[in-house]
């Protein structure tokens, strides 16, 4: 499916989901436009029936009718605009949820090649622009009704004037659509550059401490300046396209209205229409630029909406990191993890069985092999050879969401979120679970005591108010509190002092009693608390024994964990 086709699909869904409000807004907006068109006609009637031939009673009646029309058109404008705005905001909200769901989907893939700032831009500004299509349609339908109503009333006043409007208005709308095409392309480029600038800014903010430590502030500023200037230039080009389109439409509209007025004036001079009809015709000629200019604005909004819809469709249609899999883990499964001839990247023919309830240590001498193993266990990739099984079911056959609910791989670089310490720990805690056991096991009580507000204290974006060791402990507590049947931990204590690490090793053992736990680490304290340790060297399993035996008998293992 092409980008344009996918974008149109996004717009259709956004409009279809708000059909009721769009319909209500369009009907009320049409009533407003009809009322606006009737005002000059009623004034013309008042001139003919109560001014040219003075009649106080008729004047009062027609003024009352005019007041009623004003009341109704005001009601139509107010509540029609409200319905259209509600449709726009609700559609944008639902699109934001769709984008967030796709980004957080268990099969992943939406973030590939996109910095976080770019995804934020898609979920906010692009969603807003597509949602605004509902408001544009609401006002556009009402504007079309206004143009038709004005033409019909002109036909009643003068056939030549009515025909002129009926022929000229569609031509103006077609020109507006044609002139909006360059704006659509430049709007898409503008959003791409804005998203890129947001991504660069997010990256720089996230790494500000590192940049300061390296004294690389100037390079960072130069990088952002270049990106921001590119975004500014794209924005200026889009603004120029919008200004050109709007200016040309106003010029064409003004010329068209001048032509209507010229023809109407000649008809009055020839005696074809009277004074009241002249007033009505001039009033309608002044009214018509309103709905016609709205149609020009609608064209611009639709152009922006199409460009943003294509970007949203691109995120929603992003291929997942993993595909397939529909099976569910068995209820109360024991939690056996098995690797059968696993081969991927640097790993070769790994055969390993982690028994239910076992605490297993895994030492991998090559960090790249450790990352590959973790990716296969988390099913961020499927192995090139062999398989990984959970309770006898290959991971490739399990639904990604079901897999995540049974097996958690907590990687070393786990991120924290802005909020309180307790909110971070309990982010994935099952309903009714007590997080205190996990926090005690991860020595989070010491972190809480250093925060104003304790566990209710805010830790800042990405845990910026915490030290590296404190962040690790909170992330470990979150993993433990998730209470998965199988938990894989990757170097959870590299930034923790020795005394705290020993406490955490005992805490993990206590918190995960009778639960399958795999520790991919080189920490002697953590490995000493496991039932056995597997050594992966050169991509294959070369040793398997309790920690103490390997330290005594295996030189490679001793070097890996003690140096």
TrEMBL record:
It comes from the Bacteria. Pfam families: ABC_membrane, ABC_tran. InterPro entries: ABC1_TM_dom (IPR011527), ABC1_TM_sf (IPR036640), ABC_transporter-like_ATP-bd (IPR003439), ABC_transporter-like_CS (IPR017871), P-loop_NTPase (IPR027417), Type_1_exporter (IPR039421). GO terms for cellular component: plasma membrane. Gene3D superfamilies: ABC transporter type 1, transmembrane domain, P-loop containing nucleotide triphosphate hydrolases. The chain crosses the membrane at residues 22-47, 59-77, 136-155, 161-180, 247-269, 275-298. The keyword Transmembrane applies. It is found in: Cell membrane. This is ABC transporter ATP-binding protein. It comes from Streptomyces parvus.
């Amino acid at each position: 499916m092409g980008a344009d086709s996918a974008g149109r699909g996004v717009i259709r869904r956004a409009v279809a989901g708000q059909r009721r409000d769009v319909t209500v807004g369009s009907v009320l907006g049409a009533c407003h436009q009809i009322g606006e068109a009737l005002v000059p006609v009623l004034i013309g009637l008042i001139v003919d029936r109560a001014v040219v031939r003075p009649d106080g009673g008729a004047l009062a009646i027609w003024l009352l009718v005019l007041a009623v029309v004003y009341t109704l058109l005001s009601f139509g404008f107010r509540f029609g605009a409200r319905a259209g705005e509600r449709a726009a905001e609700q559609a944008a909200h639902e699109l934001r949820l769709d984008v967030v769901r796709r980004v957080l989907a268990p099969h992943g893939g939406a973030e590939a090649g996109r910095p976080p700032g770019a995804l934020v831009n898609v979920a906010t500004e692009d969603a807003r622009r597509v949602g605004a299509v509902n408001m544009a349609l609401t006002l556009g339908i009402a504007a079309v009704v206004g143009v038709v109503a004005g033409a019909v009333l002109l036909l009643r006043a003068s056939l030549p004037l009515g025909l002129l409007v009926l022929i000229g208005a569609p031509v103006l709308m077609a020109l507006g659509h044609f002139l909006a095409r360059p704006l659509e392309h430049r709007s898409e480029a503008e959003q791409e550059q804005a998203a890129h600038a947001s991504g660069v800014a997010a990256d720089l903010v996230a790494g500000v401490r590192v940049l300061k430590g390296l004294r690389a502030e100037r390079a960072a500023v130069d990088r952002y300046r270049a990106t921001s200037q590119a975004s500014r230039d794209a924005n200026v080009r889009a603004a120029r396209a919008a200004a050109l389109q709007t200016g040309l439409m106003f010029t064409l509209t003004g010329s068209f209205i001048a032509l209507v007025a010229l023809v109407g004036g000649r008809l009055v001079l020839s005696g074809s229409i009277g004074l009241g009809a002249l007033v009505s015709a001039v009033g309608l000629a002044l009214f018509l630029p309103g709905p016609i200019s709205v149609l020009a604005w609608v064209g611009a909004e639709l152009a922006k909406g199409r460009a943003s819809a294509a970007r949203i469709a691109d995120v929603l249609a992003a291929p997942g990191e993993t595909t397939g899999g529909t099976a569910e883990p068995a209820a109360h499964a024991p939690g056996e993890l098995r690797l059968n001839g696993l081969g991927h990247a640097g790993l070769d023919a790994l055969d390993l069985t982690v028994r239910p309830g076992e605490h297993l240590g895994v030492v991998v001498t090559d960090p790249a092999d450790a990352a590959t193993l973790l990716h296969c266990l988390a099913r961020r990739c499927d192995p090139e050879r062999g398989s990984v099984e959970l309770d006898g079911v290959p991971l490739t056959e399990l639904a990604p969401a079901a897999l995540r609910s049974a097996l958690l791989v907590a990687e070393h670089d786990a991120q924290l979120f802005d909020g309180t310490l307790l909110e971070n720990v309990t982010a994935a805690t099952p309903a009714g679970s007590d997080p205190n056991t996990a926090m005690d096991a991860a020595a989070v009580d010491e972190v809480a005591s250093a925060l104003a507000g304790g566990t209710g204290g805010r830790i800042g974006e990405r845990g910026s108010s915490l030290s590296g060791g404190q962040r690790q402990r909170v992330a470990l507590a979150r993993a433990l509190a998730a209470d998965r049947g199988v938990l894989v931990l990757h170097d959870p204590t590299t930034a923790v002092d020795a005394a705290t690490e020993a406490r955490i090793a005992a805490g993990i053992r206590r918190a995960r009693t009778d639960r399958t736990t795999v520790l991919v680490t080189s920490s002697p304290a953590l490995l000493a608390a496991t039932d056995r340790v597997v050594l992966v060297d050169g991509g294959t399993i070369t040793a398997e024994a309790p920690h103490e035996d390997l330290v005594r008998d295996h030189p490679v293992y001793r070097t890996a964990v003690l140096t």
